[in-house]
Amino acid sequence: MTTMKISAVSDISVAVIIPAYNAGRYLAQTLQCVIDQTHKALEIVVVEDGSTDDTASICRRFAAGDARIRVLSTENRGVAAARNTGIGATTSGYIAFLDADDLWHPTYVERMLSALHPLPRAWGAVYALHRFIDPEGNCLRSGSSLSARDSILARHLVFRFVGNGSGFMIRRAVVDRIGGYDPSYARHGIGGCEDFDFELRTAEHFKIETVPLGLVGYRVHSEAMSSDKSRMARSLVAVSEQCIGRNPELPAFVVSCARASAHLYAFSRFAALKDWHSAASSLTYIYQHSPMLALGVVANLIYSKARRGARRAFSKALPAGEPKENNLQKFAEIDPLLPLVGGWSHFRSRSLLRRLSEIDRSGECAVATSRRGLDARRPKRPSSASM
User: With contact defined as beta carbons under 8 Å apart, do 72 and 89 qualify?
Assistant: First the structure.
């Protein structure tokens, strides 16, 4: 990033929306990472979503020390409704979303804004990649290294590049065009992937840029919404089906890959819960896409169980009380330019990404949303029976 680009955006205001529900354990770290951003022109709105812990008092303490922070208190309605409340309370031309337990690298807003602002208005959003962090803020591993830019609807529907709700910045024009986050998933008991739904609806109307760096610390802990494996599985499948339903012009190949990708994710979650009935249902969808892929999924499940059993046996054989090495590094101390690794698999292959890239470039996914106009602001409501 050049000095010229940095100076060109330094005075541009960015709204930061932080929904917070019972986030007392992590909220102070999250707010501090926003305060420490190198980009200072921020409109910071914390939506305190009916918490029963000390979230509200933490919000008030930080707001008293930084005039940029406002706190909005609401009854508990879920993350989508909270984000919408925050959007409605801000005026900045750019909006960034951060979950109350995640972290940003200090240069996150600066890099994201410098990437998106110079582009034509047809580019509605920018996203960054992430690293997984533990409850103490230590980096566990990198997230996927895969990214794509420009018209990415087909690729994102299958590959899900963003991976969480804390790595997405939009122009306000996106909300003016597609509306906000869809709160009906939570009302149907399948909340969890509203961010993916919002990203897909954005991709239906706008080109999307990427900053392919691990600038987001995505926290893994037992209280996180993503820890509910069954709900997340059903949510992802529902979001994928909603996108397919909105866009009947999607090529059959894309639809088949999207369903297989969603059900691969769902199968892994159901299998972890030993919900074999739901896992079998997802495996049926995978088999319809590719019998060989379904066989590979089963073989991988057997192999994984055998490997975990061997690890447990090895762990029991170690001398009792022997200290474990801890070489973990704090997320804030990691050089953001260090490359991420991973993301490829038997299914998410380079050949599949190339083919989907060709479809995106060809305009085959140039869906008819422009003809539907404002109907795109009112997506069809998901059903808990979407699976």
Answer: yes
CA distance 33 to 14: 15
pLDDT tens, position by position, 4-21: 455 578 999 999 999 999
**What are the pLDDT digits (tens) for 40-98?**
999 999 999 999 999 999 999 999 999 999 999 999 999 999 999 999 999 999 999 99
| Best CA proximity match to 20, nearest among 34, 38, 39 | 34
Residue 110's contacts (CB-CB under 8 Å, 6 or more residues apart) are 1, 6, 9, 37, 38, 39
Residue 222: both structure tokens together: 């037992």
Write out the E strands in the chain. 14-20, 42-49, 69-74, 94-97, 103-104, 123-133, 138-142, 168-171, 207-219, 329-330
Pairing status of strand 94-97 against strand 168-171:
antiparallel
Amino acid at 153: L
End-to-end, the C-alpha distance of the chain in Å comes to 44
Please tell me the number of Cα atoms within 13 Å of 219 on its side-chain side. Answer: 23
3-state secondary structure of 218: strand
* Neighbouring C-beta atoms of residue 347, cutoff 10 Å: 18
Q: For strand 138-142 and strand 329-330, is the pairing parallel, antiparallel, or unpaired?
A: antiparallel
